[in-house]
Write a structure and sequence with these properties.
The complex is a heterotrimer.
Chain A (H helix, E strand, L loop, with lengths): L2 E12 L2 E12 L3 E5 L6 H9 L6 E6 L2 E2 L5 H7 L1 E3 L12 H10 L16 H14 L14 H14 L4 E5 L7 H16 L3 E5 L3 H7 L2 E6 L2 E6 L1 H6 L1 H9 L2
Parallel strand pairs in A: 3-8, 3-9, 6-7, 7-8
Antiparallel strand pairs in A: 1-2, 1-4, 4-5, 9-10
Helix pairs in contact in A: 3-5, 4-5
Chain B lengths: L1 H29 L6 H17 L5 H25 L8 H22 L4 E2 L8 E4 L2 E4 H23 L1 H11 L1 H7 L1 H29 L1 E2 L3 H16 L4 H22 L4 H15 L14
Antiparallel strand pairs in B: 1-4, 2-3
Chain C lengths: L2 H24 L8 H19 L3 H23 L5 H21 L9 E2 L6 H20 L1 H11 L1 H5 L5 H27 L1 E2 L6 H14 L4 H17 L7 H15 L7 H15 L9
Antiparallel strand pairs in C: 1-2
Classes of the chains: A alpha/beta, B mainly alpha, C mainly alpha.
């Protein structure tokens, strides 16, 4: 089974609005899989349904061969899926170090039996620092996340997502609001992540960024998948061009 | 028998409707719960009593005077508990402040009028009308007409007037409210005033209907009012009115056919069940999802 | 020790336990107006056990608290279905009202005339329980359970997207709160000798809410300070006689205007710890990494 994520005819409606319509996706292990599309195309909804924030109206989702369509969100995450957030969802005034730790919590005991354990053990602290180093933000470890510039906040989000040792990571607009230099760092990080054995799915507005990274792409428009294939093909796809031009 | 219960229920429900639509209005514009509302209702009742027995005003004049004073009182609560209180953490601060204001009002009422029940004077000749199997007293008739008349007026105000439309716009779209800026707070002030007036009328009518009032009557009725509002749908004034009728009838029927002492428990139990399965209330909320 | 002072201290300690019981719920982003009812459940059950069945006080308190905690689970689960704290307020309010009616109509526990005969809450017992609970909270807060609860409090959706079982965390916290409120109820009953339904109604739940929000809902110390200050305040206001409650209310209105986050918040705690650190390292203010 070389597909890590498969969706079949995935559909999600919100009242009268169809956010996803019969979306088929096949992401192979080791891919850097890009998803693009105009605003409102359903990209974030796709992530929300795959991770279990909402259940789809119909259709199926398979993760590493297992049907996860009706499995609850937190269980899916524990199976090895991680995601970042377009809207940078953090936890009040939490520090960077603790925020990254939250990404790992589900893999350790965190109930009453752990009340005498400090929030991060020495090993975990080391691992967190390694992740922060990997993303280039180790100097921030004690700061409140919300005080950081946006680009660095996104990096914290990525570090946090990696903390749980996922098999698949979903990045939602990872370079939104970043300078060209920062984007380069993130692109490098994404390649390193893929090289370490984690499959990456990236949703991005910045089409150039994705084109240079992804080995396979899909395009969404109005909830439909209108194209999928390697970046070169997508670039020349008429429907895709129209979709983008039409939305301006 | 059942028709008598129905009529009694409708009359009770009509007074609940007056009280509850005040809650619904405030939730709709502010997304905040004003726990002093029920005590405003109580003060209205006592003012009505004072105007009639001490100042010797005729009933309807006393009613209008008491309701206007209640409206002003509600505006006062707006200033002490809502206007300047930043609802930072979980929106609790204004809620808590309004509870405290309610407590203050209860103490004030106890000091002025005593903690025991006060008799509401008879101001209208009590005659009994027999309509088929139903006995309707003139008191009940007055309550029925005044309460429902006001509800119709409120409906017209909300649906047809400029202020009413602005109010509904604020309920449904808070960015619009921000754009309106200063005007929005004036509208909110007006909303508080109206809710106070309604509460005052409800208070006088309840006093009139039951013949006796006491400083803590706001407490139990107030809680039910909140429950009714949720049943009708948060911020949905029309829904609140209908739900109040249903509640009034349900209360009377439960007391009549099942058990008088468990009446409140059953009523709350049903309310919780409805809330669990249809959190939007019976008729849908009128406030945004995001807030 | 003077009996009057002992009584005040016991009352303060019971109120601190109640505030902590509500803080359990609030620290996971939930809300409850049912804590008066949980207190009542604990009070009545422990009283029946000691008075009618001569169960030793400690055992009776534990059983009563566990049953109250069980009710907390029953209330906590459906509570998760409602997305907003406003609905949670109303649902818990409703539960409180239902329990009020049950207390009022159950002859076995005295109905409206109440239940009497309980004794045994000594200053040392109350102090012991409070101390254990405060230490418990302190330890939990610094642990990974505390981290999980903090995450759920500030962003439950994100927390579930990170693999945390938000349902279990929230319900557990709710049950913990109910347990503690039941414990406080038992302690109260055996101090007051006599209990009746009106103590455990909506007003009781509101007073507990006052402790937490007035003191500061953001941090643990807020609940503790709030309970201490408001209880002491009510006692000090005795001289105002029948206007006591009005002054109490006025103080709350003023604080909500001036400091809506409550007396103690994170900024204050940080400021205090920074000042202490500053004082300890006389003059040379080198901030370590």
């Amino acid at each position: 089974m070389s597909e890590i994520l498969v969706t079949k005819r995935l559909t999600k409606k919100f009242g009268g609005l169809t956010a996803l319509s019969e979306v088929d996706l096949e992401v192979s292990k080791g891919d850097i899989y890009g998803i693009i599309g105009p605003n409102g195309a359903g990209k974030t909804t796709l992530f929300n349904v795959v991770t279990g924030l909402f259940f789809g109206d119909h259709g199926k989702i398979f993760f590493d061969g297992v049907d996860i369509t009706r499995i609850e969100a937190h269980l899916r995450i524990r199976m090895g899926i991680a995601r970042t957030f377009q809207n940078l969802s953090f936890f009040g005034k939490m520090s960077v170090r603790e925020t990254v730790m939250v990404g790992y919590l589900c893999h350790t005991h965190h109930g009453y039996r752990s009340i005498f354990c400090r929030r991060q053990s020495a090993e975990e602290n080391k691992r967190i620092e390694d992740l922060l180093l990997f993303m280039g933000i180790e100097k921030y470890k004690g700061e409140n996340v919300i005080n950081l510039p946006i680009g660095d906040q996104r990096k914290v989000d990525m570090a946090r997502a990696l903390a749980g040792n996922p098999k698949l990571i979903l990045l939602d607009e990872p370079v939104s609001g970043m300078t060209a230099g920062e984007m380069g760092t993130v692109a490098e990080a994404i390649r390193n992540i893929r090289d370490s054995g984690i499959t990456v799915i990236v949703v991005e507005h910045n089409v150039n960024f994705i084109m240079s990274l992804a080995n396979h792409m899909a395009v969404l428009n109005f909830g439909h998948r209108i194209a999928d294939g390697p970046p070169r093909e997508i670039q020349q796809n008429v429907e895709v061009i129209e979709a983008y031009l039409g939305s301006e | 028998m059942i028709f008598q219960f129905l009529i009694d229920g409708i009359i009770l429900g009509s007074t609940y409707a007056l009280l509850t639509s005040g809650y619904a209005l405030l939730i709709g514009t502010l997304y905040l719960l004003n726990l002093a509302h029920a005590d405003t209702f109580m003060i209205g009742a006592f003012l009505g009593l004072t105007f009639v027995s001490v100042l010797q005003m005729p009933f309807f004049v006393a009613l209008i005077a008491a309701s206007i004073c209640s409206g002003i009182l509600a505006v006062g609560v707006y200033f002490t508990s809502f206007r300047f209180v930043k609802s930072e953490y979980m929106d609790v601060a204004p809620f808590l402040s309004s509870i405290a204001m309610g407590m203050i009002l209860q103490v004030v009422a106890s000091e002025i009028w005593g903690t025991l029940q006060s008799a509401f004077p008879e101001t209208i000749q009590v005659t009994q009308y027999h309509i088929g199997p139903i006995i309707l007293s003139s008191i009940q008739l007055v309550v029925l007409l005044v309460a429902n008349g006001l509800m119709v007026a409120l409906y017209c105000l909300l649906t047809f007037s400029k202020v009413g439309k602005a109010l509904r716009a604020i309920c449904e779209d808070s960015t619009l409210a921000q754009l309106l800026g200063v005007k929005a707070s004036r509208i909110i002030l007006f909303t508080f005033f109206i809710s106070g007036v309604l509460a005052g009328v409800a208070g006088v009518l309840i006093g009139f209907l039951f013949g006796a009032i006491e400083p803590f009557m706001g407490a139990t009725v107030g809680l039910k009012g909140i429950g009714i509002m949720v049943l009708g749908g948060l911020g949905n004034v029309i829904g609140a009115m209908v739900a109040a009728m249903i509640m009034g009838i349900a209360e009377v029927l439960t007391a009549g056919y099942f058990s008088a002492s468990y009446r409140d428990a059953i009523v709350w139990g049903v309310l919780i069940l409805v809330l669990l399965f249809k959190p939007g209330g019976l008729f849908g909320t009128r406030i945004q999802e995001g807030r | 020790m003077n009996l009057y002072i002992a009584g005040i201290l016991i009352t303060i300690e019971i109120n601190v336990i109640l505030a902590l019981s509500l803080y359990s719920v609030i620290s996971t982003g939930q809300f409850s107006l049912a804590h008066g009812a949980f207190m009542g459940i604990g009070a009545y059950i422990s009283s029946v056990l000691t008075v009618n069945f001569h169960v030793p006080l400690g055992v009776a308190l534990l059983i009563a608290a566990l049953i109250s905690g069980g009710f907390g689970i029953i209330v906590g689960f459906p509570a998760l279905r409602v997305r907003r704290n406003l609905y949670l307020a109303i649902a818990t309010l409703g539960f409180g009202e239902i329990m009020r009616v049950v207390f009022l109509n159950t002859e076995y526990i005295g109905a409206a005339t109440g239940f009497r005969g309980m004794k045994g809450t000594s200053l040392s017992l109350a102090t012991g329980v409070v101390a254990i609970l405060i230490i418990f909270f302190y330890v939990v807060e610094r642990s990974r359970l505390g981290l999980a609860r903090e995450a759920v409090r500030y962003n439950p959706d994100a927390a579930s997207m990170m693999g945390l079982n938000v349902t279990r965390i929230k319900v557990t916290a709710f049950a913990q709160g109910a347990f503690m409120a039941g414990l406080a109820g038992g302690l109260y009953a055996h101090y007051a000798y006599f209990i009746e339904p009106s103590t455990f109604g909506f007003f009781g739940s509101l007073i507990i809410l006052f402790f937490v929000i007035f003191g500061g809902g953001e941090v643990l110390w807020g609940s503790i300070i709030g309970a201490v200050i408001l209880t002491a305040l009510l006692e000090l206001l005795r001289f105002t006689l029948s206007w006591r409650i009005a002054f109490y209310g006025a103080i709350i209105v003023i604080i909500m205007l001036v400091r809506p986050q409550g007396l103690v918040d994170k900024n204050l705690l940080n400021w205090i710890s920074d000042s202490v650190r500053g004082m300890v390292s006389f003059g040379g203010s080198k901030r370590g990494e």
